[in-house]
Amino acid sequence: MTKSMNNFVVSGKKSDFHLPKNFKITLIVLVLLLIASIAASLFFGAKAVSMQDLIDGLFYSDRDSHGANIVRKRVSRTIFALLCGTALGVAGALMQAVTRNPLADPSILGVNTGASLFVVFGIAYLNITSANQYIWFALAGAALTAIFVFGIGSLGRGGATPIKLVLAGAATTAALSSLVTAIMIPSTYAMDQFRFWQIGSVGSGTWDNIMTFIPFLLVGLGIALLTAPALNALALGDEVASSLGVHPSSLRFGAAFGGVLLCGAATALAGPIGFIGLLATHVMRLILGPDLRFVIPMSALAGAIILTISDCIGRLLGSPGELEVGIVTAFIGAPILILLAKKSKVRSL
Amino acid sequence: MKSELTNFHFIRAGMQKRRRRWLFVTAVLTISACLLCCLMLMLGNTIYPVNEVVRSLFGEQIQGVTFAVNTIRFPRMLAGVFAGFAFGVGGYIFQTMLRNPLANPNVLGITSGSSVAAVFCITVLHTSNAVVSVASVGAGLATVLVMYVLSKGKTFSIGRLILIGIGIQAMLDAFISYLLLLSAQQDISAALLWLSGSLNGVQLSELPPLMLTVLGLTPIAALYGKQLNMLELGEQTASSLGVATNKTRLVLIVWAVFLVAVATATTGPIAFISFLAGPIANRLVDIGASNIIPAGLVGANIVLIADLIGQFAFEYRFPVGVITGLIGAPYLIYLLIKMNRKGEL
């Protein structure tokens, strides 16, 4: 194990670059799933569209029919879902690597609720109204909450064990969400604004929001890909990592910053969506092994697929309205958490 | 021989001291709950003096007072007292039995299970209150069963139990959101009010299930209180002290679920009562005494205080669940920090 890990740790040389066994087949399957999910997302929804509408909406911008317009709406929504899924998948992988904790996920660690609190505070007291403003509040809230939760979770012997982190996250979520309620109840205006945002939904996927999102996504992804090799070293323990030329604490800070950036931005625009990171990263690690240089990009892909398909399911189940995607992902993702808790050894909890 | 005798006296003196302390604390908690009840009846948009309140409760018709006190404030007060007691006792039983202050009906998903059933009854089936109570008890017991099956391993781990509880809660909450989406607009507001844990608009006719459950089942405390304390010493010690551990555990769990589920069906999940009451009662009395009744009284006190704060401390009236959440959550974080420092997790 250690020997094979040393092979991919701190990879500078090309000769170290071994593709995991199932990499190619996984990549092919994921790409096919991605195409299928995009098609499903364009095609299915509260209103059925015909093939002709689909073609009109996608390729002939001058043809104006009801169905074609619906398809055009769905295009931006689908792109937004893909981007959010990517961000959340990578954020989950980064956080799990940084905390060396299989249960780290923005929603479980309370980071989403932190972002929510800052946004609702901004809406209620500082009169923020646009996505451009939400995003900074959400980022600040996400970052502070991440620091707080990790601080509490890593107190005492053994550092940040999974159970300590999850409990710290759950407690912080409880505390912050009662604050959210307390701010929201007296202000009908904030309640109205916030209600749509509070349950994660990609219905807010407009081109404006996509444009706001892209810079954050690119920076976050860049950080993730750059830190992946060093994070592999970190998985072997701080001492080994230092001896391999990695500076553990600055690496942690950098990678955590990337994770918070990604999930904070996604939360700001779509609202809190849980369990994507947990789901995507775990499935990918199960298939590909622990090498983050592959797990991170594939988690991005998997996250995008899961979120887009969940959104489709939500639209079909909730018809004629929609079942927000945050609800669907919780329903799919929570069993994974239960499974992980069941499987892991008592000692490691 | 002599030293044995002094030992015996020493132990007896200690027992008597603890017994006195238990009686004293219970009395104080009862008195303060009664005072808070009076405040609940007197305070409101208009403040009525005690004699008018009492006269109207005994059936005299007084202009204005009768409606406000008998129809609005009295049911609200009763709901607060009984729900607080039920949540307090339920939480204490789980915390003591699992030997961990974090293990309470909220964390274990029981409250969420009951909530799902209640929301389903309110929004889809439109059933009567009694049916809502029965359904939430059933759902609460089912949740316990699922938790038990899922967390059963070669060895028991409280950490695993809590993690599974969090997962189950996430799923059940998602299901509640789905039910809310399906339901009609006028049912949604009723369900939302209920979900935040509120004493608003509780009617006298809704209370009998809760009151009967609490009053009817409290005598179990006298029968099983000691056994619960022995269970806390560990499986082996308890059975060597003559406790039928499995039977005791079953009785206690069913009892606690009954209390929590019926209270949840009546007032909605009032946050953190089941979590706060036990540790406070243990602090007030001593650990080692059977603190079931004190824990229930502490629960009732907290609910009444929080409801008074929610009604009158701010410009806006907050439901009681928001206030208890604001009080309870920081305590939870404090407790975690303390447990982490000591390495108890």
Automatic annotation (TrEMBL), chain B:
A family per Pfam: FecCD
PANTHER family to which the protein is assigned, alphabetical: FERRIC ENTEROBACTIN TRANSPORT SYSTEM PERMEASE PROTEIN, FERRIC ENTEROBACTIN TRANSPORT SYSTEM PERMEASE PROTEIN FEPG
GO MF term list: transmembrane transporter activity
Primary location group: membrane
GO CC, any one term: plasma membrane
Keyword Lyase found: no
Signal peptide boundaries: none
Localization: Cell membrane
Protein name: Iron ABC transporter
Keywords for the protein's UniProt record, in alphabetical order: Cell membrane, Membrane, Transmembrane, Transmembrane helix, Transport
